[in-house]
TrEMBL record:
Residues 121-242 form the Phosphatidic acid phosphatase type 2/haloperoxidase domain. It comes from Rhodoplanes serenus. This is Phosphatase PAP2 family protein. The chain crosses the membrane at residues 28-47, 83-102, 114-138, 185-211, 223-245. Pfam families: PAP2. Residues 253-272 are annotated as: Disordered.
Length: 272
């Protein structure tokens, strides 16, 4: 039988509306994070009075009070964020323990995406971004007073821009926002969702982070630059650790067999 020749045009799958080539979304995400960080850093660095102008919108200068400082609805948002962060961290810890202590049970009861590597990624990003960078280094040593502490809003300390380490705050300072960092950290969990759900998960987390950051500004706890740059630092940390820990492009729980110790244990258990 004569061999038929296929003369149909070769069309790249991306032209047919299929997913972008592997790695392209990561490059776009990195560029977006860096662009937002550079823009926020430069704008609020060159025009620090913008922080005061934004905060003035939620400060009652006539009565010299913060009308939203003790608002129960805003406090509920803070409590919900804290609860979500704790639940995700506990879940990652449970996955880590089960994967290490009972790999056979993990094969039967845990989805493949909840691997040892995934648990390590979630817990490491929590420890590095909100833990070490924001609450371990910046807040104790940043020196920037909170809005409720500066003289334009009835406080006793001088206002300083986000980049200045010479403010009068001794500890638990305004730069950067710990709660904004923890809310943005939830991106780590969103990145572990199945590929079709991942964009939605990322969008939901970013929207939630905006809400949490807005609450902290309204309550007089942080300036806008504290919130924005805290989100940028956390998102960048999540991006870097995703590449380092999850190794996208290599076999992982999301794209193929897991090459981590837990993954090897899973395969051994399946063959036993």
């Amino acid at each position: 039988m004569a061999r038929q020749t296929d003369f149909s045009p070769r069309v790249p799958v991306t032209a047919l509306g299929q997913p972008y080539p592997p790695g392209s979304w990561r490059r776009v995400a990195l560029l977006a994070i860096l662009a937002v960080g550079a823009a926020a850093g430069l704008v609020f660095g060159l025009f620090p009075q913008l922080d005061l102008a934004i905060t003035a919108l939620v400060y009652d200068a006539a009565r010299r009070v913060w009308p939203y400082a003790y608002d129960p609805t805003l406090q509920t948002v803070r409590d919900v964020n804290d609860m979500i962060v704790r639940l995700v961290a506990i879940a990652a810890g449970v996955v880590l323990i089960v994967r290490l202590a009972a790999p056979r049970a993990a094969v039967m009861w845990l989805p493949a995406a909840l691997s040892l590597r995934a648990a390590l990624f979630v817990l490491t990003t929590l420890a590095v971004a909100p833990g070490l960078i924001v609450n371990g280094i910046l807040k104790p040593h940043g020196g920037r007073p909170r809005p409720i502490e500066v003289t334009p809003f009835g406080g006793t300390l001088d206002f300083v821009p986000w980049w200045s380490p010479f403010g009068g705050c001794d500890s638990n300072c305004s730069f950067a926002s710990g709660e904004m960092s923890s809310a943005t950290w939830l991106l780590a969990a969103a990145l572990l969702l199945p590929a079709p759900l991942r964009p939605l998960g990322i969008a939901v987390v970013l929207a939630w982070a905006v809400v949490v950051g807005g609450v902290r500004i309204a309550m007089g706890g942080h300036f806008a630059s504290d919130v924005l740059l805290s989100g940028v630092l956390t998102a960048l940390t999540v991006w870097v650790l995703y590449v380092v820990v999850m190794r996208p492009g290599q076999p992982t729980p999301l794209t193929g067999p897991d090459s981590s110790p837990a993954g090897r244990g899973d395969r051994a258990a399946r063959s036993a």
